[in-house]
Amino acid sequence: MDHEDRDPLVGGLTPGITGGARLDAHAADAWLEACPRHVLGGSLPAGLFERFVSLDPDAETRTWLHDAVAHPHGRWRARLHAMLRRVASDHDVDGWLGTHPMQVLGPSSFRALLGVGASPHGTLLDVGAGCGDVTASLGACFESVVATETSRPMVRRLQARGFEAYPVDLASCPLPGPSRVFDAVSLLNVLDRCERPRSLLHRSLAYLRPGGVVLVACPLPSRPHFDVGGHTVDPDEPLDVRGETFEAAAASLVRDVLAPAGLEVVRWTRTPYLARGGPECPLHVLDDAVVVARRSEGGRVDTSTPP
What we know:
The protein is α/β, with parallel strands linked by helices. The chain contains 10 helices and 10 strands. The longest helix has 13 residues, at 246-258.
């Protein structure tokens, strides 16, 4: 199915800041505080609810938000983006123009979710890294970072930021160079925006060292699609994440995607997934589940439907 009119940045949590509004720092902070960060325990399997961690907005995200609402993209850049979007993917256009920088969590929140200290440690493979905004936040927790991205304009931006980055789709091609494994593999807001998400998850896990962690982020409820030129289409491998509430979709993500891949949840959280917008909508927002998982060893998280 073709979805030419679908905006990949618009989605479910709470409306973006619209109407050309300009918020001061105090109003922006109040808006951020109002974003949902909790879940309804009665709507989740007990084992999954027990692993939920509620994170307050961190200082890095507040700083990012203040800048985003104070300096949205101008009208000419927004119009140029819309014109180029007719013939090129949203990812390529953002790579060319530097539009729609994104924020999920700051480094301090990623550390809390990972359960690590302030000193960088270990290695990270970030799959589908975009232009590196979220990679930089998560990457601050690690000593070294390797990134992959299918959009070549995005790869150039990653490399310009100092990341070792490769234009490769791990769903079908291996990571260039000698064989290696990583302490962590992240797929942040990529499984719902790619052609073969199940293959991508399976093949990305081949780069995880024994005992390593996987980070998966996904906007919920799920609306998967991917870019082909100037339009979007349904993926070839549907994730089949079901449920029209955040909790139902989160349970489905774990039960129907992560558990079949041999993963069990360590911790997870709910956070707004933010993107800088233009004059008509200075901020876009999605409702994001961010999951830290490990390969299953014996016991598994209860993913059955709650009573």
